[in-house]
Design a protein that fits this description.
313 residues
Length: 313
């Protein structure tokens, strides 16, 4: 390949991984390590901050603060990005809608006709189900939280609880979880020495503290959010023992609808909650496998009554 094409490929590789060994790059591009060194010098001349580290475990990486490298996309990747940008135009993250529209316009301009037709076809025949009025999430807040998670750096922010109480929090962030409706930060609250979930739309003025940390035995962030949103806030919690493996049952009951805890290879316990028995009855009768309602007793009676009505109909 010519030099320009090779430099583009090289930038694409540097963008795909945090660090590359010189020999790996040479093998990928089918050139010599000496040519790799020359190309790195060319990229630095063009304004890209190429960092190099010698010795075992060293290599090349694309440093921060430079120009955004061009991306070389396969056809399927280009279509996927275009479709994703269309979805992003309706997101609840403030500021993303306009940026997504602008990026989509740029991408649409350079797409080959065959790919543009695919994207247009998907857009013309796809409708997003309305989610109702959801609180917007500040894009800058989301970015700061994500940086803290990525670099294991502490964050301070103001937080407003569901009853309007405001407080200052100092946390060690682990992961951001999106439920499809809301965004949550999973983090260890330093003052309370406990893992907590924080709704991102209630977080204000987050600041990176510069202090690094190491998390010993962190929890499953998805399970923690599922517990905090699907069980803890509700008045009635149902426990059902199911005669099927947890992995099998979880395909029917995702984390947004209930929590599936394994007991052994062929048995699990399902927990879900609501403020009244009706939704819990609906949840129980969806279970395909033999089950036993452990609690509450009122749910067991309600399911039996529902079964009798079905038999009499």
């Amino acid at each position: 390949m010519d030099t320009a094409t090779r430099l583009l490929r090289l930038l694409s590789l540097l963008h795909s991984r945090p660090q590359w060994d010189s020999a790996e790059l040479a093998a990928r591009l089918e050139i010599t390590p000496r040519t790799v060194r020359r190309d790195m010098t060319r990229l630095r001349t063009l304004g890209y901050p190429i960092e190099a580290e010698a010795g075992i475990g060293g290599g090349y990486r694309l440093g921060p603060g430079g120009r955004l490298p061009p991306l070389l996309l396969e056809d399927a990747e280009a279509v996927a990005i275009a479709v994703g940008l269309r979805v992003a135009t309706t997101t609840t993250v403030s500021g993303v809608e306009e940026a997504a529209i602008s990026a989509l316009a740029k991408l649409h301009q350079v797409l080959p006709v065959r790919l543009r037709e695919q994207v247009d076809a998907i857009g013309a025949h796809t409708t997003q189900l309305p989610q109702g009025e959801l609180p917007p999430v500040d894009g800058g807040v989301l970015v700061t939280l994500a940086v803290g998670c990525r670099h294991t750096e502490g964050i301070r922010f103001g937080y407003r609880t569901h009853d309007g109480t405001e407080s200052e929090r100092s946390v060690e962030p682990l992961q951001i979880v999106h439920t499809g409706r809301r965004w949550y930060l999973v983090a260890r609250d330093r003052d309370r020495d406990a893992w907590r979930t924080f709704r991102v739309d209630r977080i204000a003025n987050p600041e990176l503290t510069g202090s690094r940390y190491h998390l010993d035995d962190p929890p499953d962030p998805v399970a923690l959010v599922a517990e905090g949103t699907g069980v803890a806030p509700w008045d009635i919690v149902a426990r059902v023992r199911v005669q099927a493996g947890a992995a099998t049952v979880a395909r029917l009951i995702p984390p947004s609808q209930g929590i599936v805890d394994p007991i052994d290879e062929n048995t699990c316990e399902v927990r879900f909650a609501a403020n009244e028995l009706g939704p819990l009855v609906s949840g129980v009768i969806r279970i395909y496998w033999p089950f036993e309602i452990l609690e509450p007793p009122e749910l067991r009676a309600a399911v039996h009554e529902h079964a009798r009505r079905l038999l009499d109909s």
